[in-house]
Amino acid sequence: MAKPNKSPFKVKQGGDNFRRGVWAESCALLFLLSKGYWPLARRYKTRDGEIDLIVRRGRTVAFVEIKSRGDIWAASEANSHYHRKRIAAAADIFLKNHPGYWNNYHLRYDEVICVPGKWPVHIISAWS
Question: Which residues of the chain have pLDDT under 50?
């Protein structure tokens, strides 16, 4: 008989990837809100790529990739060069549609790693 899942934050290993992704996005958003970031867009999709979360704090706009894996190292290695190119392409489209952010804000690519049972890890300027 399976043990009941007592924590609302635990995700069944090998479970539905979509559900795990939604959990990680919610976890990352709450964590970034607690750090003073405000969301501009969530799941920003374009024909060239997708950005999990776009947030702003002060004069900084961060394009955030959210990863959830069994451990921090596996999550941090899951972001390939190809994937980063697609995020950058989506960021370019976002900036073309919102030109005020282009010149007046510091822009960067962040990563938030969510591992069940641990605090999220926010990597500022994860790549350029």
Answer: 1-9, 11-14
